[in-house]
Specification:
Blueprint (H helix, E strand, L loop, with lengths): L3 H14 L4 E5 L18 H7 L7 E4 L7 E5 L4 H7 L4 H8 L4 E4 L3 H9 L5 E3 L5 H16 L1 H4 L6 E2 L2 H8 L4 H24 L6 H14 L10 E4 L20 E6 L2 E2 L2 E2 L2 E6 L6 H18 L8 H19 L6 H6 L26 E2 L2 E2 L7 E4 L2 E3 L15 E3 L2 E5 L4 E3 L8 H9 L8
Parallel strand pairs: 1-5, 3-4, 5-6
Antiparallel strand pairs: 1-2, 2-3, 7-8, 8-11, 9-10, 12-13, 14-17, 15-16, 17-18
Bound molecules: glycine (GLY) and manganese (II) ion (2 copies).
């Protein structure tokens, strides 16, 4: 994780956005798959962002300008649990190590919360992260309200913090960009290994295994989302992640996979022919999506509105849809009547950071926001033709292609953080000729 000064600086910026207020952030509940064996926990992204604290059963309360200003509720030391689950920081340890003003046991949340909230004007808190914390917050606010008669304080309205937090997390600093670059580099290596490994007869799961091997071998703690490894018509199912079919000759293979570094995730998609060489139809279809992606990437610079990227993708894909003969209409008609939605049903991209679909407003005061240096987002056009689409030329039926890169806006333009993965037809075919170190899998 980063130095404690990084988190302190982030909190200082938050203080300016929420004067006289407080923000409370809860960790997610421990998911119950099989409570007997446990499973890995991932900290809530904004707790990571403001504190760097990684343990479960955590509540972070920030009251800028008050004493104590930073309060962390954590699991207390417990030798028996620590024997099974590993060492905890505990109350004292967390306070010292994470530079908090005060730390309490999570079991004492209800005891302290009402008093800590009573002087604040309003509370930023996101419901539905953790039902147990929801109850504690509601009880604390209610008891602060009841105490109002005596103190004149204590009606604490609750506001959703997503927008405030989003405004901070949207702009990545040097350390965050380095983490994102590392996440992209590891993910790029995994995509390259997948290309080298794929051939007719391997399973989608084996391809995923090759990627997971690289992720772990390079020290990544977890993937940012379940990898999608879809061959043939599976590529036309947008959230396919069963990854259980066998890759066949003449299939395209769509892989959407990205891993984390320091909690920041990559989100990269490539599509390539299982056999290592594009057929003529596959090449046309692939280049149609690539053209649209390059059109959008060329526009990514400060001052351009996010919605303009969206419209550019729609326009460009409308041209390509017409050219491929998927819809026998003029490009203008396909664009204006939104006919492209049949083959391009999703958006051009999303903010990227601690979460794969990261926080941050796309519109400000009803207007699409402009790109600014430090923003990181995906550019991911795609075309997907259902296998039973009688309107489409037969050669394209069951074809799905998405190309997804991760883009950082710089002072003068952009930097493609995921540029380590081959993308043109020639580049992909060249890499696929190389031997795979996983060939015996
Ligand atoms: N992998 C999720 C997405 O592309 O949005
Ligand atoms: Mn993706
Ligand atoms: Mn994405």
């Amino acid at each position: 994780m980063f130095d404690t000064s990084t988190y302190k600086n982030r909190r200082k910026k938050l203080a300016d956005l929420i004067p006289n207020c407080a923000m409370l952030i809860s960790s997610y509940p421990v998911a119950m798959r099989n409570p007997d064996v446990g499973h890995k926990f991932r900290q809530e992204s904004s707790i990571v962002y403001f504190t760097g604290f990684e343990e479960e059963e955590t509540v972070f309360l920030y009251r800028p300008g008050r004493t104590p200003e930073t309060v962390l509720f954590v699991r207390p030391k417990d030798p028996l649990h620590e024997l099974w689950e590993g060492v905890r920081f505990g109350v004292e340890g967390a306070k010292n190590h994470f530079g908090m003003d005060a730390c309490f046991s999570i079991h004492d949340l209800d005891k302290h919360l009402s008093e800590l909230l009573s002087p604040v004007e309003k509370l930023y808190y996101k419901f539905d992260t953790n039902p147990k914390t929801d109850t504690s917050v509601l009880n604390a606010v209610e008891s602060a309200r009841r105490a109002r008669g005596r103190t004149g304080l204590g009606v604490v309205p609750i506001f959703d913090p997503t927008e405030v937090i989003g405004e901070l997390r949207l702009f990545k600093d040097r350390e965050e960009i380095a983490a994102l670059q590392r996440a992209c580099d590891i993910s790029a290596e995994a995509h390259v290994e997948a290309m080298k490994f794929a051939k007719p007869g391997v399973s989608e799961k084996q391809v995923e295994a090759v990627m997971q091997y690289i992720f772990k071998a390079r020290g990544s703690d977890r993937v940012g989302y379940d990898p999608i490894v879809g061959s043939g018509k599976n590529a036309t199912t947008l959230h396919y992640n069963e990854n259980k079919d066998t890759c066949k000759d003449f299939d395209l293979l769509l892989i959407d996979a990205g891993t984390e570094c320091k909690y920041y995730t990559a989100d990269i998609t490539r599509t390539f022919p299982v056999a290592g060489v594009f057929t003529s139809a596959q090449k046309d279809f692939y280049n149609a999506v690539l053209t649209a992606q390059m059109d959008v990437l060329d526009m990514c610079k400060p001052g351009v509105k996010f919605i303009d990227l969206q419209e550019k993708a729609r326009k460009s894909l409308s041209e390509q849809i017409s050219k491929l003969g998927l819809i026998k209409e003029r490009p203008e008609k396909i664009y204006e009547d939104k006919l492209y939605q049949k083959y391009y049903p999703h958006n051009i991209g999303h903010w990227l950071g601690l979460d794969v679909h990261d926080v941050g407003a796309y519109f400000l005061g009803g207007d699409s926001r402009e790109l600014e240096p430090g923003m990181v987002f995906t550019v991911e056009p795609g075309l997907y033709v259902p296998i039973d689409d009688q309107d489409a030329p037969e050669e394209f039926r069951g074809m799905g292609v998405r190309i997804e890169d991760n883009v950082l806006i710089t002072a003068t333009g952009n930097k493609i953080l995921s540029s380590g993965v081959p993308k043109t037809v020639d580049e992909i075919e060249e890499v696929m000729k190389l031997p795979s170190k996983f060939a015996d899998l």
